[in-house]
């Protein structure tokens, strides 16, 4: 029988630019403080390196690592086993075959420490094209019995991403982000809108604090299939945000308003 309720933790953290050892140490400290309160955890976009691309510059190429054979993926697998947690986490991926080819990637590890898959950001923010190649797929993953999609930061601006994931059966879409102060209204609005549009859960987890001249707005949050925010973090402090997801709400909302029975992707036209 499919589970009806799931507790997820969002790790809102401040990162030290370019210091993977320090950031992983902070992550380990925060994981230790979940203390059985959740079954699945998500870290922000590029949590091992920080996100400020202007400060990181070409150091990104030295900080990148392969997936799943890199040190961070191995560390995440060990942590998943140790804390009995499924983990969703963002890092800089180095292509296994082409030197200098990088991806803004999220990896997924199950509670047994097994690598489930990766998502490469497919819709890059303009400044990211300097460093990253876009991914070319929108997969949905089976993560410990939950159907999980991923959309990274700016991708919350693209409703078709979320509809595509919903039509593949996603129940939760994680949105690891690096949203700065001044753009918090977009995070608030888009998290709720994408959840209600598709009648599933959206969990947005953000950086907080300063990275050079950029300050992140925090406000990690979970929106339910009605578009209601069921958990919200502060805008200025590292914290662990835990939310219980009542998965039966997905069915209830889709019975009440059967959007996907009327959905007709074959006739929608996009001309640019």
What does this structure look like?
The protein has 272 residues and is an alpha/beta fold. It has a single domain (5-259), classed as Nitrilase/N-carbamoyl-D-aminoacid amidohydrolase, CATH 3.60.110. Helix content is 26%, strand content 28%. It is built from 8 helices and 14 strands. Strand 1 (5-12), helix 1 and strand 2 (40-42) form a beta-alpha-beta unit. The chain is globular, with a radius of gyration of 17 Å.
Q: How far from one another are the termini?
A: 45 Å
CATH class label: Alpha Beta
Low-confidence stretches: none
Number of strands: 14
Order of helices and strands: EHEHHHEEEEEHEHEEEEEEHH
Number of helices: 8
| Strand percentage | 25-35%
Tell me the major beta sheet: 6 strands, mixed
Decide which structural class fits the backbone: alpha/beta
Main sheet: which strands, in order across? 5-4-3-2-1-14
Q: What does the radius of gyration come to? A: 17 Å
Shape: globular
Q: What do the pLDDT scores average to?
A: 96
CATH topology name, in short, is: Nitrilase/N-carbamoyl-D-aminoacid amidohydrolase
Please bin the fraction of helical residues: 25-40%
Number of domains: 1
């Amino acid at each position: 029988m499919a589970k009806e309720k799931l507790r997820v933790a969002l790790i809102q953290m401040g990162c030290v630019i370019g210091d993977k050892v320090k950031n992983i140490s902070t992550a380990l400290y925060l994981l230790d403080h979940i203390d059985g309160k959740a079954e699945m955890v998500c870290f922000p976009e590029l949590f091992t390196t920080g996100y400020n691309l202007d400060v990181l510059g070409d150091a990104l190429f030295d900080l990148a690592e392969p997936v799943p054979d890199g040190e961070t993926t191995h560390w995440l697998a060990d942590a998943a086993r140790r804390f009995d947690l499924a983990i969703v986490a963002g890092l800089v991926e180095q292509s296994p075959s082409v030197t200098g080819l990088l991806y803004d990637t999220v990896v997924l590890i199950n509670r047994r420490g097994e690598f489930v898959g990766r998502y490469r950001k497919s819709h890059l923010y303009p400044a990211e094209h300097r460093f990253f190649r876009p991914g070319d797929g929108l997969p949905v993953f089976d993560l410990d019995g939950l159907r999980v999609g991923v959309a990274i930061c700016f991708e919350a601006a693209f409703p078709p991403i979320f509809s595509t994931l919903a039509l593949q059966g996603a129940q939760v879409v994680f949105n690891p982000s690096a949203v700065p102060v001044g753009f918090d209204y977009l995070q608030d609005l888009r998290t709720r809108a994408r959840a209600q549009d598709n009648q599933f859960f959206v969990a947005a987890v953000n950086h907080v604090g300063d990275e050079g001249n950029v300050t992140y707005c925090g406000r990690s949050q979970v929106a339910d299939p009605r578009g209601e925010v069921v958990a919200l973090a502060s805008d200025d402090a590292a914290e662990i945000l835990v939310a219980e997801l009542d998965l039966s709400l997905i069915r209830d909302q889709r019975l009440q308003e059967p959007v996907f029975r009327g959905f007709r992707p074959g006739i929608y036209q996009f001309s640019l």
